[in-house]
Amino acid sequence: MNKTKVIRLLIAGNALMLAGWAFGFYFPIIRNIWSSSYTVYTSGIALICFATLYWFVDVLQFNKRLTFFIAFGRNALIAYAGSTLFSDLTQETGFKQWIFQDVLSTFFNDYNASLLYSLLSLGLIFIPIWWMYKRKIVIKV
């Protein structure tokens, strides 16, 4: 049953990618304006990614190795709100400017400093998410 779902998702994803590619000859695939051919093509890619994750998580039961992502998925709203709050607080207090320019940029180039700042932000947002996951607290709307 689950294998047929995965196969159907993969077929639909490939069909969307093929349709978007073919439609691209008449209406070019342009990412900047989100052309309809681009939307159909990337929807196919997203469906293939979803089928792959469904295969690993639900069919093959690789849940233990993916607990980081499962924790974020269980409380995605809190993660989103927390990232917005973290971004606003660090911007207003000057922490972002200080940690990025005075600390990270002195040791790394701007690209790597930006990556490290993003990973630091993700790690700090993950702390309450992990706490909620371990206590089975889920916020839903």
Fill in the keyword field for this structure.
6 helices; 2 domains; mainly alpha
Describe the structure.
The chain is an all-alpha fold. It has 2 domains: 2-61; 68-134, no CATH class. 78% of the residues lie in helices and 0% in strands. The chain has 6 helices and no strands. The chain has helices at 2-23, 36-59, 67-74, 76-93, 95-107, 110-134. Helix 1 (2-23) runs antiparallel to helix 2, helix 3 crosses helix 6 and helix 5 (95-107) crosses helix 6 (110-134). The longest helix has 25 residues, at 110-134. The model has no long low-confidence stretch (mean pLDDT 91).
Q: Uncertain runs with pLDDT below 50, 5 residues or more?
A: none
Helix content range: over 70%
- Mean pLDDT metric: 91
Total of DSSP H or I helical runs spanning 4+ residues: 6
Described by strand count, sense and barrel closure, the largest sheet is: none
Element string (H = helix, E = strand):
HHHHHH
Task: Give the count of structural domains.
Answer: 2
Structural class: mainly alpha
Tell me the overall shape. extended
Radius of gyration: 20 Å
What is the total tally of β strands? 0
Report the sheet-strand fraction.
Answer: under 5%
End-to-end C-alpha gap: 30 Å
SSE blueprint:
Elements: H1 2-23, H2 36-59, H3 67-74, H4 76-93, H5 95-107, H6 110-134
Helix pairs in contact: 1-2, 3-6, 4-6, 5-6
